[in-house]
Amino acid sequence: MEFGLSEEQVLLQDSVNRFLSDQVPLDEVRKIASGEKSDTGIWQGLTEQGIPGLLIPEAQGGVGLGYLDTAIVAECLGHHVTPSPFLSTAVIAPVALLAAGGQEDLLAGIAAGNSRVGIAFGEALGARADAGVSVSDGKINGKSIFVMDGNADHYLIADSNQHLYLVSANADGLERGNLTTIDATRSTCQLIYNDVTAAPISNDANVFIQALDIGRVMQAADTLGAAQCMLDQSVTYAMQRKQFNRVIASFQAVKHMCADMAANIEPCRSFVWYAGFALDDIPDDRRLVSCQVKAHLQDVGKFVSKVATEVHGGMGFTDLVGLHYWFKRIGANRQLLGSPEMLREEAARIQDLAA
Amino acid sequence: MDLSFGKQYEDFRGEVRQFVDSHKDKQPGGYDGAPTPKEWQQTLIEHGYTARTIPKEYGGFGAQPDIIESRIITEEFGRVQMNTGLGGQGISMLTPMLLERGTEAQQQEFIPPTIRGDISWCQGYSEPGSGSDLASLSTKAELDGDEWVINGQKIWTSSAHIADWIFCLVRTEPDAQKHQGISFLLFKMDTPGIEVRPLVDMTMKANFNEVFFTDVRVPKDQIVGKRGEGWLVANSILGFERGSLAPPDAAQARLNALINLMKSETMNGQPLMANTQFRERLMKIQGRIMAMNYNDMRLLSARLNEGQDAKLAGMIVKLQGTELRHELEGLAIDIMGEIGLSFDDNPYVRGDGSWQRHYMYYLGLIIGGGTNKIQRNIISERGLGMPKEPKVEAK
Ligand SMILES: Cc1cc2nc3c(=O)[nH]c(=O)nc-3n(C[C@H](O)[C@H](O)[C@H](O)COP(=O)(O)OP(=O)(O)OC[C@H]3O[C@@H](n4cnc5c(N)ncnc54)[C@H](O)[C@@H]3O)c2cc1C
Question: Which residues of chain A from 255 to 314 reach within 8 Å of chain B, CB to CB?
Fold first, then answer.
């Protein structure tokens, strides 16, 4: 029995963390968040590390690693609030395309870092405002909002039947408009469809649900990394900042805030590891675990992002230390692909506890 | 990652499961011909399902320590909520400590009757002036010839009113620094000079007591470890205690009971489970239990595989586990509305009153065994490397 990361997994974690520490310092994140720079450079760098093709089999140009490996990378990206289309292009799209079969060229393009596939799933989970997608005779009409990745060249779209379609970003009749959200580390857009030609990818809702589940686990891992980083920054800051002639880390109120963060984060690490492992090896657990791991991580993430900001005092509230990038990253992970209450209701349904 | 225990252990699990299934109806209980708790304890020892790694010469089963085997026993007994034998502080705390720190003579004298249930123990640590700051304790023992003479008072001593013996921290070296002046003594509760006054707790039962010592004379050799080593000895058992205060498998069993309650209990004819808000809270607790379960797997793994660091994961268990249980039991009360108030002989009482009882009991555990605030001190200082608070002299 061994519950933990293998040597290879620790190496993977170290190498991704090293790359991100070197290439994606906070200054770089700021430039991208402010629109001064695009995230393509980082994605190129991550491509050299094989990241876009993590889940794509070697025969199709990828690296063919497992879900736990992918969760480890997601955690690193969250830790460094890395601007990248990882969740959409490297996780949800390949999982859906592989499950559905076909689209070999696109998969190879993703693995090579040449293609970015945005994800428009929101309308299949719960259509908000005036959004909604309908498809007939191979043409899409309607609107998707809060689509992941405003810089993609393809979009994977789910309709209300949870059927999946692929469109090209420059297809006739497609109107794309950026949507500003709190999380500027990852771009979000809306898509308006006027008789846009769509390639059917899957009319099996299970494909959608599988991609969704796996996306949720990776989002939980991203939150784990971000939350851990906020705790680390809090302890470091508290050990330096002095008030009343002593470091604030010696005040019990501050210590207990940090202890509570640690006490909540630590079991989350095991939860995310288990979830990644279950995706690989315990298929019966996949549905429940992916709903619960995301719901739980978002609760802990919300708590940590508040308390860590508080530990930093006024500094935490400023743009100067940039703690808010982590706060907002966690906030975005919470809302996208199902908020905690939705996920818990889904968890109840999965266990036959809800009608 | 490899969560399987392997073939040899699956065979072992088969054996345990067979025992559990064939003994489900032979546990102690209120039926004709039911075994007494002591008889049941003996059956469990003979099969190696309790006192498993205690040497045969001390009345145990004598198996080599094997964390996985112990785990499997816990899982299989937990699966059907099987009676796991006698508990109490003598078995869970004193016995492991004697095995580590006791003399051969002490092991022979105390372990066999303790694990058989022939003698029961209480833990005399806390004092009126020394709770969280336990090392400041002032009950003193002075050597007079071949005997210790003990004077002072203990408080919150669970089961002192029914215990045969006490393991007790006393100050024997008044001139030494506070942690180095303490010794660990064992003595009989019927020794002249001991007075036990039960204290009714919030469950309205007297589970703990005040214990007064006036010139209590105890043979000199009834000390565990050397003079002044009592703090070390006590700390070796506190580890045992904290780890076992709120295990996640017990929380999982209670969650299952709560799910059943929510399916069977109704409001306006609808099962409580049909209420979305109740369900939301249930699912939230489930998520937390899952996290603690996997945390527990990680701890098990770290004991089995050298080099895995799970220090912080271990430190948070008492804090998180007790808070979680308190909330879980409280949720059952909340959703039952007025029925949740039922206590004792009230005909509407559910689950034998266990929801209210546990709800209060876990508040006790949030305080006992090192309060959860003290746990936060430990996590921040030893886990996160934050400094101790400056000491202030009391006026
Ligand atoms: C159900 C139950 C069973 C028990 N059984 C036994 C037993 O069998 N044997 C035995 O010896 N003892 C037993 N105890 C006693 C228990 O160990 C003590 O109650 C506990 O250690 C706290 O001590 P105290 O009650 O004196 O509280 P105090 O130490 O006075 O604490 C009061 C409050 O102050 C806080 N506080 C104190 N110091 C600090 C600090 N440094 N930082 C932050 N906050 C602080 C505490 O967290 C708490 O909230 C039992 C207690 C309970 C509730």
Answer: 255-256, 258-260, 262-264, 266-271, 273-274, 277, 280-281, 289, 292-293, 295-296, 299
